[in-house]
Write a structure and sequence with these properties.
This is Protein sidekick-1. The protein is built from 6 helices and 19 strands. The chain has 330 residues and is of the alpha+beta class. A hairpin with a 6-residue loop joins strand 7 and strand 8.
Length: 330
């Protein structure tokens, strides 16, 4: 009997507790409204951008460009990519809304990243792109894309003259590349020089400074040819090397052969004139050679005109004296 009364009181207590719990929940709903809708209206639950993403990106022509947009608390909103210059919608979600299939939206389920990928970008693709979220009002974040043409450069003239037995020293720069090249290869014609079996060849590459040097010791005529520097992230550059057997050393210094060779020609002409008589000086052949040398030197640099004047002034008294002697002899 006592046990039965205890069970009845226990059931009654549980029933009263349930009623009190329901009353409390109803009262909270009346005071605060719908909890779930209140949660979504909270500013802490609204989508927002993660500003850790790079907002300015430099890409190389022909190599894919990636613009990474991170959105927190996205919920059921959609992310779109828009080209700002013409307000063209490129992608919505992972769908592409342009006929230019180079544009693609990349997203992994469950992640906060929405990446715009541009395959084979061109300089005309440079500009601002907006990552937009379909909130009300909409929120967006701009990204600047710079598409550059990266070209390698070999220091010095495009044509070099090296004396036989001297060292060939070529330096290549890939400074326009936004990232250090993973490799820089040297070619002579189509033959790779980095791993050449010929002795005396050394390639020194520094990725951080984006430079590479090709060193060839004791060059011979077989080392003449077209040398190409080809970085992984840049267009190649070439130089033509001539190895000469030392007949005219002045014409073999790093390709500065134009002025040097003309100076040599003028020097030979003056020496010939000083050895000959006045009649030879006034001969058509000598005048032709002298004028030809003067014209070419003047086209190269105006400084050599002064040298010509000095040289002629030094030779003229001697030539005049020889002329007088010849006239007296007659």
């Amino acid at each position: 009997m006592i046990l039965t009364i205890y069970h009845q009181q226990h059931r009654l207590g549980c029933h009263i507790n349930m009623q009190l719990l329901l009353l409390i929940l109803l009262e909270m709903r009346t005071i605060y409204g719908d909890v779930s809708s209140h949660y979504w209206e909270s500013p802490y639950s609204q989508p927002y951008f993660d500003n850790s993403s790079r907002r300015e990106v430099t890409a190389i022509v022909g190599q894919a460009a990636l613009l990474q947009c991170r959105v927190r608390n996205l919920g059921d909103r959609a992310v779109s990519w828009i080209r700002k210059r013409d307000l063209h919608i490129l992608t919505v979600g992972i769908l592409t809304y342009t006929n230019d299939q180079r544009f693609q939206s990349l997203h992994t389920e469950g992640s906060d990243e929405w990446t715009l990928r541009i395959s084979s970008p061109q300089p005309r693709d440079s500009g601002t792109y907006e990552c937009q979220v379909s909130t009300e009002p909409k929120i967006s974040q701009g990204f600047r894309l710079n598409v550059v043409v990266s070209r390698a450069k070999i220091l010095g003239n495009p044509e070099l003259f090296i004396k036989s037995g001297s060292d060939i020293n070529l330096t290549c720069l890939a400074m326009q590349s936004p990232i250090p090249p993973s490799f820089i290869y040297w070619y002579k014609g189509k033959r790779l020089m980095n791993y050449s079996q010929r002795g005396g060849i050394n390639v020194i590459t520094e990725r951080t400074t984006r430079t590479s040097k090709l060193l060839i010791s004791k060059a011979t005529s077989n080392d003449s040819g077209n040398y190409t520097c080809s970085p992984s992230s840049s267009d190649s550059a070439s130089v033509v090397v001539h190895v000469i057997n030392g007949e005219h050393p002045a014409a073999m210094q790093h390709g500065n052969n134009s002025a040097s060779s003309q100076t040599l020609l003028l020097s030979k002409t003056l020496q010939q004139l000083s050895r000959n008589t006045v009649a030879a000086f006034f001969s058509v052949s000598a005048l032709y050679h002298l004028l030809h040398a003067l014209v070419q030197i003047f086209a190269t640099t105006n400084c050599y005109v002064v040298i010509v004047g000095v040289a002629l002034s030094l030779q003229w008294p001697r030539l005049t004296q020889n002329a007088r002697r010849r006239i007296v002899a007659r």
